[in-house]
């Protein structure tokens, strides 16, 4: 009797597993739609699915609730246009050639949208690309020129430019929904890139969020007053400290009149404020006027420490204010997919072009291989494939998107793409994921924010970084013991063995990805040729 029960139970369990797997395979074979949502500079610390201390983002969180939250997603080069080039080509910056924001993207590169378009996908892109040229492989695109504007933005289209009155996050979404509603061919699968400018500097929220966010006070990050000990020549010289480098006028919206009265001189202009029409300006002044008045009164009593805290709070109010609109608009698009019955067969990704410092190490901006800018948010939902509410801690990178989307669409990836499809991780039954280290290389120096050139390797336990060009400095972080990366233990004899093993592993990765000192030198020469650095 017991034996019969045993066979019945395990037989049933086996049948259930087989039918689950069949369902997953059936769904995968369906050629799903792909919706790729990316914002610009959106720190994972500012998504409540990761951390709810700063802001509530219920709509972005929905993607994790219905799908998967990646806790170890990183970029290969933490800066805007290079990250986008890596995403589109599936190749590291040193191979696709887009090492920084300065040079235009080489359009002879093959990108995954071109391959999907050839395979019968409809393709469209709306929002920020930041390439210096138009994207290839898209049936339709409306993109912002360069960084684009928060208010009344101009868009580049295949048939000419158009300027739209309003707020960029709302407009990018309107354009996206308009395409889905009116120009999508229901007979074909689609791949849609919906790319927000927000929350990029200079952090200008939508009018409906001015009041709520400027009233808030945020918890101070533990490393706000980092003194950069053990990182004196690398983190130390970076020009992205909130106290020293964040500007009152451009970043924190203190007016010329107030600055003049306080005898504060600043070189950066008024940014997006000059794009307002009179009605928009009036709405802005109603809320930001009193902030200016209060600052005028308080300024003379401030010391470095109180000014740092004041600046941090102002920074967070505006940065997070812009995210509120991103979250609402992501909700609009998800609702549309749900209501039209499209959600069932659509894979949705939410990510950022890189992470961002929200006061950690005293900083704003990104670029470093330290966690807050190296890691990036990643949430994916794919009904009937991903088990809702899953958390995934394997090491994945923006390098992996191209091959993931190609596999999802049943298209073979070109041999020279360098990532790895995430599909095995997305399936209910995980196949083996044999990556235990990732590679990183940042180039844009000398340049704004003064973050030195560096490359490195990260495993779950350690991070080894080499800063070069005008320094020759190695750093090692014990990620488990020192998650805030405050103690460079490269010279600590206890870690000698780790250093030697990681150096070897780093060399292997550099070989595998075809990076080398001679390539680094060629990219330095490029800066010399362009007159960006002196011979
Ligand atoms: C602008 C910003 C920088 C930022 C870069 C790159 N300065 O130059 O703070 O690091 O963009 O950002 S600003 O004065 O123009 O706002 S990226 O996301 O496009 O790479
Ligand atoms: Ca960016």
Architecture overview:
- The strands form three sheets. The protein has a ten-stranded mixed beta sheet, with helices on both faces. It has a four-stranded antiparallel beta sheet with strand order 13-14-15-16, covered by helices on one side.
- The protein is of the alpha/beta class and 535 residues long.
- It is globular, with a radius of gyration of 24 Å.
- The chain contains 16 helices and 16 strands.
- The protein has helices at residues 2-28, 58-65, 80-89, 93-96, 112-118, 168-182, 207-214, 242-245, 256-262, 278-298, 304-339, 371-374, 401-408, 423-426, 496-512, 517-529, and strands at 33-39, 68-70, 73-74, 122-128, 140-144, 154-157, 160-163, 190-195, 346-352, 378-381, 390-392, 396-397, 438-442, 454-458, 462-467, 473-478.
- It starts with a helix and ends in a 6-residue tail after the last helix.
- Helix 7 runs parallel beside helix 10 (278-298).
- Calcium ion binds at residues 40-41, 80, 353-354.
Topology:
Blueprint: H1 2-28, E1 33-39, H2 58-65, E2 68-70, E3 73-74, H3 80-89, H4 93-96, H5 112-118, E4 122-128, E5 140-144, E6 154-157, E7 160-163, H6 168-182, E8 190-195, H7 207-214, H8 242-245, H9 256-262, H10 278-298, H11 304-339, E9 346-352, H12 371-374, E10 378-381, E11 390-392, E12 396-397, H13 401-408, H14 423-426, E13 438-442, E14 454-458, E15 462-467, E16 473-478, H15 496-512, H16 517-529
Parallel strand pairs: 1-8, 1-9, 2-11, 3-12, 4-5, 4-8
Antiparallel strand pairs: 2-10, 5-6, 6-7, 9-10, 13-14, 14-15, 15-16
Helix pairs in contact: 5-13, 6-11, 7-10, 7-11
The structure holds 2-deoxy-6-O-sulfo-2-(sulfoamino)-alpha-D-glucopyranose (SGN) and calcium ion (CA).
């Amino acid at each position: 009797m017991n034996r019969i029960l045993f066979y019945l139970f395990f037989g049933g369990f086996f049948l259930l597993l087989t039918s689950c797997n069949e369902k997953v395979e059936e769904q995968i074979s369906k050629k799903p739609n792909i919706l790729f949502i990316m914002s610009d500079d959106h720190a994972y610390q500012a998504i409540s699915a990761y951390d709810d201390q700063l802001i509530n983002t219920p709509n972005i969180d929905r993607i994790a609730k219905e799908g998967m939250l990646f806790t170890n997603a990183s970029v290969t080069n933490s800066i805007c246009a290079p990250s986008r080039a890596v995403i589109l080509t599936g190749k590291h910056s040193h191979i696709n050639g887009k090492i920084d924001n300065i040079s235009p993207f080489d359009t002879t590169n093959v990108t995954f949208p071109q391959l999907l378009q050839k395979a019968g996908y409809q393709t469209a892109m709306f929002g920020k690309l930041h390439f210096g040229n138009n994207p290839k492989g898209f049936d339709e695109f409306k993109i912002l020129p360069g960084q684009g504007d928060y208010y009344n933005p101009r868009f580049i289209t295949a048939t000419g430019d158009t300027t739209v009155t309003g707020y960029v996050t709302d407009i990018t979404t309107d354009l996206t929904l308009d395409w889905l509603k009116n120009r999508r061919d229901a007979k074909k699968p689609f791949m849609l890139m919906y790319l927000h400018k927000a929350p990029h500097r200079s952090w200008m929220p939508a009018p409906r969020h001015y009041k709520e966010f400027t009233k808030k006070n945020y918890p101070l990050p533990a490393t706000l007053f980092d003194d950069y000990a053990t990182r004196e020549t690398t983190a130390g010289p970076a020009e992205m400290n909130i106290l020293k480098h964040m500007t009152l006028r451009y970043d924190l919206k203190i007016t010329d009149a107030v600055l003049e009265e306080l005898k504060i001189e600043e070189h950066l202009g008024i940014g997006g404020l000059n794009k307002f029409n009179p009605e928009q300006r009036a709405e802005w002044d109603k809320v930001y006027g009193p902030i200016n008045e209060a600052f005028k009164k308080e300024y003379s009593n401030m010391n470095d420490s109180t000014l740092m805290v004041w600046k941090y709070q102002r920074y967070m109010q505006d940065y997070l204010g812009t995210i509120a609109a991103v979250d609402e608009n992501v909700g609009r698009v998800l609702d549309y997919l749900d209501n039209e019955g499209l959600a069932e067969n659509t894979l949705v990704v939410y990510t950022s072009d890189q992470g961002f410092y929200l006061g950690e190490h005293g900083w704003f901006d990104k670029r470093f291989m330290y966690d807050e800018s190296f890691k990036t948010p990643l949430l994916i939902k794919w009904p009937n494939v991903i088990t809702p509410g899953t958390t995934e801690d394997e090491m994945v990178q923006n390098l992996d998107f191209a091959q993931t989307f190609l596999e999802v669409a049943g298209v073979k990836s070109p041999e020279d793409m360098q990532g790895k499809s995430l599909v095995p991780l997305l399936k209910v039954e995980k196949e083996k994921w044999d990556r235990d280290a990732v590679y990183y290389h940042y180039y844009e120096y000398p340049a704004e924010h003064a973050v030195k050139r560096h490359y490195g390797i990260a495993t779950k336990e350690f991070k080894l970084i080499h800063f070069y060009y005008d320094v020759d400095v190695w750093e090692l972080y014990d990620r488990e013991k020192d998650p805030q990366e405050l103690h460079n233990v490269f010279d600590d004899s206890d870690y000698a063995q780790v250093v030697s093993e990681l150096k070897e592993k780093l060399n292997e990765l550099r070989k595998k990805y075809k990076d080398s000192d001679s390539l680094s030198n060629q990219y330095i020469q490029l800066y010399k040729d362009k007159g960006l650095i002196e011979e």
